[in-house]
Structure formats: structure tokens, C-alpha cells
Amino acid sequence: MLAAGAIITLERGHYRLREQIASSAYGVVWRASGPHGLREVALKLVNQPQMALAQPRQRVRWVASAANEIAFLQSLQAWDQRHIVRLLDSGSHQGLPVLALELLDGDLGQHVAGLKSAGHAVPFARLLDWTGQLNQALAKVHQYGWRYLDLKPANVLLDARQHSVKLADFGTNRAAAEAAPQTYAGTASWQAPEQFFPQAGGGYASDARSDYFALGALFYFLATGGTPLRFCDACGQAYRDHQAGGAALLLRHGGGAMPATLEPVEEALFSRRVALAAGAACARAALAMLRALLDAAPAGRPDNALQISRMLAAVRAGLPTATSGPA
Fold it and tell me: Is residue 180 located within the same domain as residue 271?
């Protein structure tokens, strides 16, 4: 069992655990002091107690996911890491992979929750900047031949000093070249329909446009001050209650149709919030972008990051000359 003060040795030296800052069924993250000349890091390890309880296949998947994340981050060039968390060191502890990552200021979900409790929201101009930065990060993932498949607030880390965000947690990456239907991957409450609802013959047919749906869900979440899409909520609850069988249950409840990915009442809420923050012209362009990203069919979504950048530019064109607010 890991505890504060424990020493973990990786390729570049020794790391002393300070405090646990995050955990999941798959992994745990510790704040740790690094070797001489290296600032504090976020040390990410496989969750050993859960590993001991897991079935053999699941253990193999968890180790493979960590190794996959290390390989992806090591493959990046320095100039590709502006909006992707940097890998500082790696190695193993008790036979399991370990990553030493740059330590940032918490995740976007925590940040939005803090603002919401104080009665504030992310300034809309900054929200657009962050959406653009995540679009750039996804473009790099896709450029290197991967699908990300797990975009959600908890996987977006905040650099408060730079007012910027970075994409983290790449264990769910799937190779873009694998065209055959895949096994389930991602987080049900932040997924595109094709990630949650399997094909008739089984398996899930995701691609880069699945990541763009999640970007739209995040765009809605930020613009509405932390309100999740009803579609995502329904899928998340169905998965919690019935695991992969939740998809079939939702289809039965809908008479064979899945829930709407964007309901009229949600469009109205989104437009109202954006109009209040940035004006009617900005709200119209933002709604057009949201509808495109959240199209139920992958073919209706943008094909690439350039198309999304152009949509963001159209939204920015409607912004007032000056925007301000807490962040």
C-alpha cells in the first residue's frame, strides 16, 4: 500500500510521495517531489488494491493502457506538447508502469464547480480559447494516428497562470488505423452515441469525430456553467445501473430510438447563456457550432480540426470588443 513518504524510483531518479491528489478504479495520482533540478510532479500509478481484485483480463488491459499512454507521450515532439500534458519520466514500481507528469492546477471539472459555488462562470472569451486549445490537442492526437475517446472535464488540466488547458490521460487511446469495431472504451457520461450504442453485429465503431462530439458536450457544459447534456446524463446513469446492457435498455425505452443528443430546451438554455455573456450574434454562431459537434451521426459532425477552428472564428467574430469576468 502506498503512503506519503514512500520512494518511487524511475529512469531519471527517485520520487518521494507527498499526498494523493486523485484516484480512480484504474489509477492513483500523487503529488511527489522529484530528483534534483526537477520540480514537483504528478506521479501516476496503477491502482494496486483494485489490480489485486481485478480479473486477469482487466489487469492486462490496465497495464496495457498505462504502457500505451507512456508510448504516446514519448512519441510527441516538444512543439506538440503545448496543450498536452508533458511526460517528465517513466518506469515501473512493483512490476507496474509509472508516469511522472507535469503538475498543474487541478482539472476543469473542479475549476467549474468552484466557480459555480461562488456564483461565477468561465468568461465566454476564455471558454472559446480553451475550446480552441482542446481542438488543437485533439488534432495532435489524431495527427499521431490515434482516437482519444475520453474527453471530459476530469481529463482536462488547468494551468491557472497561463489561463490555458492541457489534455491528459491517454490510456484510452485507440489506433485510428484499426477500422474494425472495437471493445467499449471511454466514460459513458461523455461519449458520442457510437461509443455507447454498439453496432448490430457487436462492437463500437468510433473515429476522430467521436472526439468532436465530446468536445461539443464539453462546450455545452462550460457555456451553461456546469450543466451536463441530458443525453450524456442518461447514458451515464444507464451504464452505472446496467453496464454495457444500459444501451439496449435506453433503446427499449425509446421505442428503438436513442435519446436526442441535443434537446430544444438545451438549445434555448445554451443560446440564452451565450447571448447574456457575449450577445445575440455570438449566440447564433455558437449554437450552429454546438449543433454540428453534437450531431447524432458522425457524418454530420466536422471532419477535422480546421473546420472546428473556422467555426470558432465565426463565434469570436461576434464577441464584444472587450470581455471580462472571474476565471
Answer: yes
